[in-house]
Amino acid sequence: MDQIGIDALRIENVEVDVGILPKSHKGLLGLDILKTYGFIVDMEKLELHSPHITD
Fold it and tell me: Which listed residue, 11, 19, 31, 41, has the most CB atoms within 10 A of its CB?
C-alpha cells in the first residue's frame, strides 16, 4: 500500500498480506507495525495507544 493512516500518524510504503477476514473487520495490524511504531495494546479496554497519537 502507498500509505495507511492511524489517527494523525501516516505510514508510507506498507507491505500487506491479502487474506480472508470476517466482514466485520476493516483491517488487521501486524506486529511489525505495532512494534516499529511503539504501539501499546490495552486488552482490558480494547484500546490502542501510541506516542505518535495525542489526545
Answer: 11
Q: How far is CA 46 from CA 14, 32, 41, in A?
A: 24, 19, 7
pLDDT tens digits, residue range 1-55?
Answer: 899 888 788 889 988 777 787 888 777 788 888 898 899 999 999 888 887 666 5
3-state secondary structure of 50: coil
The distance between the two most distant Cα atoms of the chain, rounded to a whole number of Å, is 33
- For the entire predicted model, the pTM comes to 0.64
- ∠ at Cα 7 (36, 17), nearest 5°? 50
